[in-house]
Amino acid sequence: MGLKVVKFIFFGNYFIGLLAVALTIESTLQLKVPFNSLTYYLLLFLAPIVYYTYAYMGAKNSLNTQNPRTAWYAEHHSFVRISQLILSLVCGALIFYMVLSDFEAILYLPLEYWVIVGVVVAMAVLYYGLVPVFFFNLNLRNTGWLKPFIIGFVWAATANLLPLILLKIQSGTDVTKTTLWYFLFVKNWMFCTVNAIMFDMKDYAIDSNSQLKTFVVRIGLKKTIFYVLIPLLITGILSLLVFAYIEHFTLSRVLINLIPFLLTATVAYSMNRRKKIFYYLIVIDGLIMVKAICGIIAMQFI
Questions:
Q1: Do 196 and 148 touch, CB atoms closer than 8 A?
Q2: Residue 225, class by beta-carbon neighbours within 10 Å (0-12 exposed, 13-18 middle, 19+ buried)?
Q3: Over the stretch 46-83, which tens digit does the pLDDT of each residue have?
Q4: Is 212 in contact with 251 (CB distance < 8 Å)?
Q5: Concatenated DSSP letters of 122-138
Q6: What is the Cα–Cα distance from 181 to 84, expressed in whole angstroms?
Q7: 249: DSSP letter
Q8: Which pLDDT score, from 0 to 100, does residue 244 have?
Q9: Strand, coil or helix: 269
Q10: Between the chain's N and C termini, which has fewer beta carbons within 10 Å?
Q11: Which of 265, 268, 191 is closest to 235 using CA atoms?
């Protein structure tokens, strides 16, 4: 029973929804801005579930795959299909309600906000190659080395930029005029990019056979760790330190925020050996949750 619950939460992408909410709460506290509406947080929880489940909607035969995640989707195909439909309708209803409630504010949203929304939506759409082929055929999931940066960017934008846009719409609060959000955005972008690259390590053999030129396929496992992951983590740490300096963080607050970066470096170094899929889903994705929790604790209790 316990294993079934774990599979439901992690294979079903419900943990991903929790990560999106946790990262957004962390960023909200660190920027010291008002919280978004409950409607937005509900949408923020449900939308990633729908988005990440889309990739597995075609799984129907659990006997033809050795991937336990794909096998789970094939085994629960009917439930996933119904769940996907219901959650998509709920997301659509929430978006409609939010647009209807703040239609005038959305209409007069400054151009720079529209640019941010456009870039994030474009990357999310192109990630699955959802643009009709007669326009152009581009699937960012197949770009190899670029893919983790796109994933990291979308996650950082979800946690750092979209909430600020909603605040501008719902309360007129404008944070983009300061430089604080920029350093926080870079910190999250680098952290989530490292997380995505580590997740690619589980597909090393598959990506190599399909000639998908990820970092691991191009330069090998050890070089990816030392020449890619560690420098990106250092970039994220530097952005954190600049943000902490501007915001006059105490030493204890800085140290707590550094914990997930140090844990990520440790996990990255341990990935010389192949792990089971639950290691990637629980430990690696769990690092994002640890990061959010550390950020929240540092802002609330120190």
A1: yes
A2: buried
A3: 999 998 898 787 766 655 566 778 888 888 888 999 99
A4: no
A5: HHHHHHTT-S-TTT---
A6: 33
A7: -
A8: 87
A9: helix
A10: N
A11: 191
